Amino acid sequence: MTNNTLVVGNTAATSTAMTMPVLSGSLESYIQSVREIPVLKKSEERELAVKLRDNDDLEAARQLIMHNLRFVIKVARGYSGYGLPLADLVQEGNVGLMKAVKRFDPTVNVRLVSFAVHWIRAEIHEFILKNWKIVKVATTKAQRKLFFNLRSKKKRLAWMNDAEVKDIANDLGVTSKDVLEMEKRMSGQDIGFDLSTDDDDDSAYSPNQYLQSDVEDPSDAIETADWESHTQVLFKNAMSTLDDRSKDILASRWLVEEKATLQDLAAKYEVSAERIRQIESNAIEKLKSSVEAA
Question: Angle formed by the axes of helices 141-153 and 162-172, to 10°?
Fold first, then answer.
């Protein structure tokens, strides 16, 4: 939207060409630029919304967005307590405003800001949840409600007592367990899994020093899988050098769950059990020689 010249409405008061403010430099300069953009009258807003709906008029969409940017800043400032840059919150709120403009119905007798506030907040909420901590603190609907309401519900900075937990749980329609869990998540701090290379304090420790993993080391797992695959190829190639009877005897004796006895195979091939043993022994020796040669 950079360098787009916009003409607002058809009235004399709004006929001056203006460019869309871009949030790419100083936040203060951006806010000052937005404040200089006049607020649309209800009739002007509806006229632009009808043009957008009926003609897909992108110019009308840009004007609706531009003249409501000041409202995004106001909403974004309400989330400054989460420790994230206001510029990022405003940027995400602008995305919500754009989505709202696209879905705005001019036949409903409400101003755009009344409809857009829900979209603006939704985008800001999603951004905060993704960036407030490394690990996402809220995934379910109940957890999201707790995350954005727990601070305002708390009456003091200290940990809540049982009565406070129950009151908040009742107000928000969640369990006391959910309230305590969210308070713990919001009070915790992100720490690195490994110690920093600059940390030479012998008393310091990180999760990788006390969290036990039952998972095999990835490098060992890859090496084992590679070796097994290689061995299977060698064995398959070695087996292909044997005659059919030797293959069947080895498979029946070693490669099936219910292994055949020497007597079973002797009866099958109408030879003695000793002969079956000799064939088996010779086949094994051929396999070893073939694998070693490979």
Answer: 130
DSSP 40-68: PPHHHHHHHHHHHHHH--HHHHHHHHHTT
Phi, psi of 19 (to 5 degrees): -105, 150
Amino acid letter, residue 181 = E
Write down the H helix ranges in the chain: 27-35, 42-55, 58-66, 69-77, 86-103, 112-131, 141-153, 162-172, 176-187, 218-239, 244-254, 262-269, 273-293
**Any idea what the Cα angle at residue 286 is, between residues 283 and 288, rounded to 5°?**
110
Q: Which CATH architecture fits 1-132?
A: Up-down Bundle (1.20)
Find all residues with CB under 8 Å of 208, minimum gap 6, and list them: 193, 194
Q: Which CATH class is domain 221-293?
A: mainly alpha
Task: Pick the closest to residue 115 from 57, 55, 63, 49 (CA basis).
Answer: 49
Residue 16 sits at φ, ψ, to 5 deg, of -75, 135
Residue with tokens 């060409």: 17
Domains of the chain, by residue range, sit at 1-132, 134-188, 221-293
* pLDDT at 166 (0 to 100): 80
Kindly state the tokens that stand for 51: 């043009």
Coil, helix or strand at residue 155: coil
pLDDT, position 255: 84
> How high is the mean pLDDT in each 10-residue block of the chain (294 residues)?
37 48 79 91 94 93 94 91 86 94 92 93 86 63 67 58 76 75 63 57 58 66 80 86 91 88 92 92 89 79
**The predicted structure's pLDDT at residue 7:** 36
Q: How many CB atoms lie within 10 A of CB 168?
A: 23
